[in-house]
Write a structure and sequence with these properties.
about 170 residues, 8-stranded antiparallel beta barrel
Amino acid sequence: MLRTVLAAMSGAALLVGAAASSYSQTPAAPGTASASGRAGVNVGSLTCNVSGGVGFVFGSSKELSCLFNRTDGVAERYTGTIRKFGVDIGFTKEAQVVWLVFAPGSIASGSLQGAYAGATAGGSVGVGAAANVLVGGSNKQITLQPVSVEGSVGLNVAVGIGEIELKYVPKK
């Protein structure tokens, strides 16, 4: 049984490694297409702390605590959940993910609130790597392009569909 699981994880890790290495994490210049092929301008960066957890064969769900640093200097807080549907086996400790945020133009406060989806490929043995471009938010016009994943430590293989739900936390 253990040999079968290890063989499956090794095969998935090779697949994930090939997919992740073919993905370019070079940020798009303002006014050009992002990695998703959508045109837009960089309106800031979204930094999220992702809770650790255990992945299961059918998927996983982890809590997010995020800070959106707009290019105009304003910071906005978001909370949310990140989900993976598909093969997701293993465990990871908490991590920090940074996305560049692209939109058709300037955006209002709270505009990142909403659901985002995209295909995912990632893996970690020790320190991990992943590729995931997500589209969603206000009128499905926001693109999140990953630029950094730090602190993802553990043994995890994940291939599937990724989804994030963000909720705006207004200033009090």
